[in-house]
């Protein structure tokens, strides 16, 4: 899939209509007044074989410690999701804020920890020359876009959480466990790019 194909898909209302709002049950029981707006950058790195930039969060973080995520965080007062996503990527992994070519948004995703995440997709040209902040990121790494485009790659799994059986997506990776909000956002991206 070429960058032009990716950009066309993300700008196509028919492709976006294939996914609709993200379905989740993670946020059940979280009071609406306690929902925190957040944004993540979904960086598609334009290598000859494109990849998605992800991060392994530092084990010392107060929320989602040691989990795989996209660069991102809280939306500050007066910020758009796009501005927050680019700012957080600069703070977390040292991504030059002039690099991302923003393409659009995926549907919001709410988490059980009280965040409403707006994913912002953008192209990023290599080389990245990242300098991660060790307080926030243990390791940036890349997932091949070919894996995201493989309809057989994501798995649906179940686990008990807060006394209920929950279902969630998991993406294959040789070293990291990609699940939760990050996995759900990747599923939505895959559905748009694959056309179903």
UniProtKB/TrEMBL annotation:
SUPFAM superfamilies: Nudix. Its cofactor is Mg(2+); Mn(2+). Gene3D superfamilies: Nucleoside Triphosphate Pyrophosphohydrolase. Transmembrane segments: none annotated. Keywords: Hydrolase, Magnesium, Manganese, Metal-binding. Residues 35-164 form the Nudix hydrolase domain. Pfam families: NUDIX (PF00293). One of its GO terms (molecular function) is coenzyme A diphosphatase activity. It comes from the Bacteria. PANTHER family: MITOCHONDRIAL COENZYME A DIPHOSPHATASE NUDT8, NUDIX HYDROLASE. Belongs to the Nudix hydrolase family. This is CoA pyrophosphatase. It comes from Roseicella aerolata. The lineage of its organism: Bacteria, Pseudomonadati, Pseudomonadota, Alphaproteobacteria, Acetobacterales.
């Amino acid at each position: 899939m070429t960058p032009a194909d990716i950009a066309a898909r993300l700008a196509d209302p028919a492709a976006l209509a294939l996914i609709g709002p993200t379905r989740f049950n993670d946020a059940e029981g979280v009071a609406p007044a306690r929902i925190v707006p957040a944004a993540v950058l979904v960086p598609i790195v334009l290598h000859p074989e494109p990849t998605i930039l992800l991060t392994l969060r530092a084990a010392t973080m107060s929320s989602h410690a040691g989990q795989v995520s996209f660069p991102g965080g809280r939306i500050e007062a007066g910020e758009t999701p796009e501005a927050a996503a680019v700012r957080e990527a600069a703070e977390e992994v040292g991504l030059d804020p002039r690099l991302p070519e923003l393409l659009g948004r995926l549907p919001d995703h709410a988490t059980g920890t009280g965040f409403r995440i707006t994913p912002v997709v953008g192209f990023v040209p290599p080389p990245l020359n990242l300098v991660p902040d060790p307080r926030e990121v243990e390791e940036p790494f890349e997932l091949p876009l070919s894996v995201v485009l493989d309809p057989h790659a994501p798995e649906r799994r179940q686990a008990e959480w807060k006394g209920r059986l929950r279902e969630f997506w998991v993406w294959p990776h040789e070293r990291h466990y990609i699940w939760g909000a990050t996995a759900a956002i990747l599923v939505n991206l895959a559905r748009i790019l694959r056309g179903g």
